[in-house]
Fold this protein.
Amino acid sequence: APTEDRTFRPAQSVCPFCGVGCTIQYAEASGKATGTKGPVNRRGEVCPKGVAAFDVVDHDDRLTQPLVRESGHLVTAPWDEAIDRVVAGVADIVETHGPDALGFFASSNCTNEENYVFQKLARVLGTNNVDNCARLCHSSTVAAMSARFGAGAMTNTLDDLGEADTFLVCGANPAEQHPIIFQSYLGPALKDGTTMIHVDPRATATTRHADVHLPVEPGYDIPLLNAMTTVVFEEGLEDRAFLAERTTGVEDLRAHLAEVDVDANADLAGVDPDDLREAARTYAEADQAAAFTGMGMSQHHCGTDNVHALLNLALVTGNVGKRGTGVNPLRGQNNVQGAGDVGALPDVLPGYREVTDGAARRETAAVWGVDPPGEPGLTEVEMTHRFGDEIRGAFVFGENPAMTEPNATRVRDSFEKLDLCVVLDLFETETAEHADVVLPGSAWAEKSGTVTNTDRQVMRMRENADLPGEARQDLTVLTEIARRLTERLGVAADLAGPGFDFPTPESVFAELTDVTPIYAGMSYEGIGHGSQRWPFPAGADEGVGVLHTQTFANGEATAPLVPIEHVPPADDLADGELVLTTGRVLQHFNSGALTRRSDTLTRMYREDALQIHPDDAEARDISDGDRVRVWNDRKEVAVAVDVTPATRRGTVFMTFHFADPLVNALTSDDPLDPVAKIPEYKHSAVRVEPI
Ligand code: SF4
C-alpha cells in the first residue's frame, strides 16, 4: 500500500484519461484534482474522470515493491534482483532467438519521453516489434488518412471546428467520451445553430443534440457513406473547383458510385433513405462541414476502408484544408497521439517516417549511433498470436492487453507460453497476473514529461506527488534497463550522444525533437504552461493549425479519390444471433485499471450492463435487470441487462471497462484489417438468453 506520509503539491499537469488534454492539478482543500486554465480547458473545466484523477494515485492497490515469480507465485523482491532478472531474461532471448523474438508493448497512457525511450530500446536491440494500443483504436484511421493526405491526425483544431455549419459525427459519442470537447467546443456551436448528423447504431448522449440520427447497423458504414457521396453527385452538390484543383480520380469514383442504388444501400445499412439523403444534402450544402470519426468506424476488419469512404465524402464536397472542416479522429487515451508521434509503432520511426525509408533510418542512426532495423515489425495482435512461437519474451509498459485485446481468453492463455513477461505498471493488472517480473512505476501525478492531445497540442505534465514506497519513475526504470541491456549485449559502445543516459525528461525531449521532424521546433521552455502544436518545424515561430490548406502534408497538391467496395462483417449471423458492439461510458476509461479503482467513479457506474432493444428482449423472455448469459464460440459471460430502445433492434452493447464480465472474451481477433491490422471489436455474433 502507498505510504501514509506522502507529499502532494499543486503543479499544472495533464489529465491522465482521455485525449482531450485538460490541464489539472492537486487541490489541497479537497485532496482531489481541480482544473487549471489550460490550452484546451480554457476556463479550467474538467469532467468527472478528471476530478477523480487522484483517486488512483494513492490507491491501496498501488504496487510499491517489485514482484518476481517464484514457484508459480509473484513475491516481493529487491529492485536489483528484479532488474537482474529482466536483463538476464531479455539478453538470453536475444542471444538464443534473436531480437525479433521480443515484443514491446508501449503505452499510450504514458509520456512522449517514456515512449520514445521504450521504442529506442526496442530498435537499438534490433527489432521493430514495438506497438501501442493506438493499434486497437485508430490505426485504421491513421492508415487511411496518411495514405491520402500524408498525416493521420486531426486535420483541424478544436478552435476552428466551432466555425462549422455542420458536424458529421461518425461512430463516436463525444458527449460522453470527450466531454470537455463537447461541452466547450461543439456545444456552443450547436447552440449557435450548427447542425449535427450523428451516425451511430445507438442513440447516445451525443444523439440528443443531433438534428439527424442515422442508426447504422454495425459493419455497414461503407454502404452508408458511399450512398451519401452518391447523393452528392446525383444532386450536383459536389465542389467542382476543389475536385479539379485538389483531387485526382474523380471520374473513377463517379463511375463506381453510378452503380450505387441509394435506397438499397440505405436499406443495407439499416437507415431511412430520406434521412440519409437529408444528411448528405446538409453536409454537402454547408459552407463549412466538419467530420469527426471514432472507434465505431475504425474498429472493423474493414476499418481502413470505412475511413477511406468518409475521406471521399469530405473531398468530394471540398471539406478539407479550410477552417471548420476536415476529418477529425477523436483520440482515446491521453497520449495515444504522442505515442505514435514518437515512434512506438512497428512500421514507422519517430515522426511517422517509414522504417523502410533508408534516408530516415540514416538520419535516426546519426543521432542514436545504431541503425534501426529496416523491416516493419509485428503489431500488437500479431505479437500475441505468436507468443511462445516466434515471440519468446514480452515487455508490457503501462498497458493491459490481457483485457484490451480481442478474444481475451486466447490472449491470456498465450501469455503463459512466454519464456519471459515483464510488466511495468501501477497495479497488479490482469496482464501482470501472467508476468515473471512486475515493476512498480509512476502514476501520472508523480511524473513530468509531455503528452500530445487529440488536436496535436503537446503539453507538459508536472509532478504533484512523491512516489509511494519503492516505486520508481518509469523513465528511470526504462533507462536503467536499457543501459544494462545494451552493455550486456555489446551495443552500448556504439551508442551516440547520451545513449540512454538521460538525466531528465527534458533531455529526452531534446533528443526526440532531433529525430522527429514534426516536433523539431519545440522545447519545454516554448511549451511552458501552454502548448505547442505539430507540425512545428525547426525555426518556426509556431505550429500549424489547419492542415492541408495549400498542399497536403505529404507535399502533394492533390489527394486521390478511391472507389471503396463494401466489405461485409467477418462474423456471419446465424438465426437467433445478435450483433454485439462495444464502447465506453463517461465514468470509465479503457480497461478500467485506473477508473475501477476510483470510489467516486464506481459510485457513479459500478457494473456493466448489456443494452438490448425491447423487441429482442421480449423475444427472449428477458426483462430489464435480469441477468443473462451472452456467448459465442469464443466464450460466455454473464451480465445484467438494460432493456432500452437506445440500441437498434438486433444490436446489443457492452462496455470494455470491466474484468467481469470481460467483453473482449467475446470479440474476434481474426480476421484483422489487412492494412492496419486492427481487430473487429464492433461486430461480434452472440447469443443472449436468460440465466
Ligand atoms: Fe480528463 Fe478527458 Fe475529462 Fe478532460 S474530458 S477531464 S481530459 S477525461
Remarks:
- The chain has 25 helices and 28 strands.
- The radius of gyration is 24 Å.
- The mean pLDDT is 96.
- Residues 15, 17-18, 20-22, 46-47, 49-50, 179-180 surround iron/sulfur cluster (CB under 6 Å).
